[in-house]
Amino acid sequence: MLKRILVCIGLGTCVMSGIASAGETPTAGGQPAFATEIDVKLSTVRSLIEAKEYESAEKIAEEVVGDSPGTLDGWMMLGYTRTLNGKYELSNDAYDKALAYGADPKEVYTHKAYNCRRLGDPERTRECYHAILNVDENNLDVLTQLGAYELQNENFDDAAECFSAVLQVTPGDIEAIDAMARVEEKRGNAAQVKYWLEKGLSYNPHDEKLLKRIALIYLNEQNYTIAIHYLDQVLENSPDDAGAYRNRGIAFYQRGDRKKAAESFEKVREMGGKMEGLYGPLADCYRSASRRDQALEVIKEGIDAGSQQAWLYSVWGKLLEDQKNYDAAIAKFNKAVGLADEPWSGYARKQIARQAQLKKREAMIAAQGGME
User: Fold this and answer.
1) Sign of the dihedral through C-alpha 104, 106, 111, 112
2) Residue 36 within a domain
3) Which residues, other chains included, contact 359 with Cβ-Cβ below 8 Å and sequence gap of 6+?
4) What CATH number does residue 306 fall under?
5) For residues 122 and 110, is the Cβ–Cβ distance under 8 A?
6) For the chain, how long is the longest CA-to-CA vector?
7) What residues make up the domain containing 363?
8) Kind plus residue range of the DSSP H or E element containing 159
9) Does any domain span residue 314?
10) pTM score > 0.85 for this model?
11) Which of 10-14, 273-277, 330-334 has the highest mean pLDDT?
């Protein structure tokens, strides 16, 4: 006959479960067998984990191993729930029990490595990773995790060894290639960083992460033509990437191509991208192209945003100089000087003297004209 029992799952909630009594056999014809009480409790633990009721889940997992110490899944569940509750040492104890009862060493040591990382114990963390590699030396996931861990801890030689091992098995592994680039970046080896990024792009020419990183390297090296080449490739695949337009505009501006720089900066502006640092060069681009109204619009917008004000007041002063309105120009340059933002405040100081000379020369020309 079928006995009915109540299995409590915490917080006052209980479920009815059917348990097959001694001597009873499952129904023929493919019907499922009745679950044991242990099965029901383990299922309840899983449900509680999904509901994020971790303390209740741990309590029931403890009941499972207390009632049936040889239950492998019980020890694994107990280890997992203890991790979720931040009990990392106790979790490791449970996983050791699971290992003793025949659990998969790779699974156990993966969980223990996580716990040891949370405990801030690098020696035991490495021991766990190496325990897996001792039985599965080409475990790419573990090599990648260990490499990332060593990189995080600035053990660059060990990190490189791990990622190199991955690449020996899968030469086109973009994650490992990118990691090698980051290792070399930490070592300060710019040539090797570019080597690895270019290698990654040889396998995946459209990888945006690699394209952006290598473009930024060339931008910082002031190799603007190559930086633009890579940024153009980013924009071919992602035409709405405001960050790529931003860097492309900077590259064109530094190369002296004000027209293309302005086009890129305006794209950033239209998309609502980050304009911090761009108001000054964009205003300067418009002034260079004699687009006074657009320049003034950008100047006022940047000043209102509190960005590059000394630069913007200096550009404003130059616009007024273009109109031979020297007194007004001096006022704007004085604003720039008062902001004490070098090098533009220093530039403005020189311009004030220049405006006085221009004003004096203009007066002399006017006087000579009157005499004639």
Assistant:
1) positive
2) no
3) 326, 327
4) 1.25.40.10
5) no
6) 130
7) 275-372
8) helix 156-169
9) yes
10) no
11) 330-334
Q: From its phi and psi, is residue 273 left (phi > 0), alpha (psi between -120 and 50) or beta?
A: beta
* CA angle at 84 for the pair 79 and 88, rounded to the nearest 5°: 60
Q: Report the candidate in 284, 319, 325, 318 with the shortest Cα–Cα distance to residue 302.
A: 284
Cα-based distances in Å from 21 to 5, 120, 363: 11, 49, 114
Say if residue 75 is exposed, middle or buried (CB neighbours under 10 Å; 0-12, 13-18, 19+).
buried
What's the one-letter identity of residue 106?
K
Number of Cβ within 10 Å of residue 207's Cβ equals: 20
Residue 297 lies in a domain: yes
Q: Residue 139 is encoded by which pair of tokens?
A: 């475990």
Dig out the tokens for 332 from the structure: 């704007």
173-198 pLDDT tens trace:
999 999 999 999 999 999 999 999 99
Please count the other Cβ atoms lying within 10 Å of the Cβ belonging to residue 121: 15
Q: Assess contact for 40 and 59: CB atoms under 8 A.
A: no
Kindly report the number of other CB atoms within 10 A of residue 72's CB atom.
16
* In a domain? residue 337: yes
DSSP-assigned letters across all residues of 254-309:
HHT-HHHHHHHHHHHHHTT---TTTHHHHHHHHHHTT-HHHHHHHHHHHHHTT-SH
At 108-160, the pLDDT tens digits run 999 999 999 999 999 999 999 999 999 999 999 999 999 999 999 999 999 99
Residue with tokens 């569940």: 77
Q: How many domains does the chain have?
A: 1
| Model pLDDT, residue 21 | 30
